[in-house]
Amino acid sequence: MLTGKQKRFLRSQAHHLNPIFQVGKGGVNENMVRQISDTLEARELIKVSILQNCDEDRDTVAEQLSKGSQAELVQVIGNTIVLYKESKENKQIKLP
């Protein structure tokens, strides 16, 4: 689990990132979770945006994505989810 200080740090790191994935009408599926896992391994910190036509609410989507990819949910703000997962091979972010 991340501490409040670590989450604040990650939020500041994620501020300038653009969302890489979009969750739309289809909701969350296995393929998306797999791609997000792979991307997290490469980047550690990503944003996912939830489109207007998504049937599920944003907290449900955030929970499904973080559980499915074994990532930490850093924040849900508006329709954007920030996820973090420590990389095994490409460690770039040093947590406080």
UniProtKB/TrEMBL annotation:
Residue ranges that the Swiss-Prot or TrEMBL entry lists as coiled coil:
none
The answer, when asked if Amino-acid biosynthesis is one of the entry's keywords, is no
Q: In which domain of life is the source organism classified? A: Bacteria
Q: Known Gene3D superfamilies for this protein?
A: YhbY-like
Instruction: Report the InterPro entries cross-referenced here.
Output: RNA-binding_CRM, RNA-binding_domain, RNA-binding_YhbY, YhbY-like_sf
Keywords on record: Plasmid, RNA-binding
Domain CRM span(s) in chain numbering: 1-96
Among Pfam families, the record links this protein to:
CRS1_YhbY
Looking up PANTHER family in the UniProt record yields: RNA-BINDING PROTEIN YHBY
List the protein's name: Ribosome assembly RNA-binding protein YhbY
- Organism expressing this protein natively: Robertmurraya mangrovi
